[in-house]
Design brief:
globular; 261 residues; three-stranded antiparallel β-sheet; six-stranded mixed β-sheet; Rossmann fold; ATP hydrolysis activity; ATP binding; binds adenosine-5'-triphosphate; ABC_transporter-like_ATP-bd; alpha/beta; 9 strands; 8 helices
Length: 261
Amino acid sequence: MTAQVRGQAWVEQAPLFAPIDLTLAPDSWTCLLGPSGVGKSTILRLIAGLETGARFQGEVNRDQPVALMAQDPGLIPWLDVTGNVTLGARLRGTSRASFVPKYPGGREADPVEGSASRGAEPPSDPAARAAHLIEAVGLADRSHHLPARLSGGQRQRVALARTLFEDRPLVLLDEPFSALDARTRAQMQDLSARLLDGRTVLLVTHDPAEAARLGDRILLLREDGLSEWPVPGPRPKGAARPYDAPEVLQSQAGLMRGMMA
Ligand SMILES: Nc1ncnc2c1ncn2[C@@H]1O[C@H](COP(=O)(O)OP(=O)(O)OP(=O)(O)O)[C@@H](O)[C@H]1O
């Protein structure tokens, strides 16, 4: 089962979404699209067991530990990149208190150049794991920078590394690549597809191209409920579909037409 939301929601007296019945298929990516304010983040927060601004009537079931990457990176301003990535472990008391990742200064590493993004699995030791993920998201030379010294896209990549660091079976991603340039976005999609292979992922996105690359299932949420959108064939294991494959471009265009309707 993994996670399930059945019910409807209101904000104050106004209906937010009509009754929905969403069950996340295990070990697969479900992409959720829909107009701004329709309740996508609300669904993620319901599954995560967090407060929402909505009144929900129905049931939410989840039988696995979850990691949520919210829209706002939510970085702790006085912790550097490494400190933010390892925040969960620090709070649980499972990280070594003082480790210093050995990365040289200089130009920001290109995510595609590092060994971390070429296919090696993240190590299990917290310090090594954090360093590996920070390299994988292309921030190896900024591991000691505070959030105030990072761009919006860099902050978003820190939040992604923090979410991947948690290594949970169920992962909720709320527009995780929205602040990234097109090239980095494609790289982070590839990285996430690889590192989250075998996990159950619910991805909220406004980008039809992203849904066409990553979705094993694509859902549109509107005020009148959820509707299913066809996916462009099976997705390669542990990978995103090629961004320029004709079937992906066709799916992207069809999805865009559906969103415009
Ligand atoms: N804390 C809150 N208090 C009151 N209303 C809220 C709160 N959080 C969200 N809402 C309202 O709930 C509705 C759904 O918000 P939600 O963030 O789930 O939408 P969304 O589909 O994720 O939007 P977007 O695509 O813009 O992120 C919106 O109309 C919003 O104004």
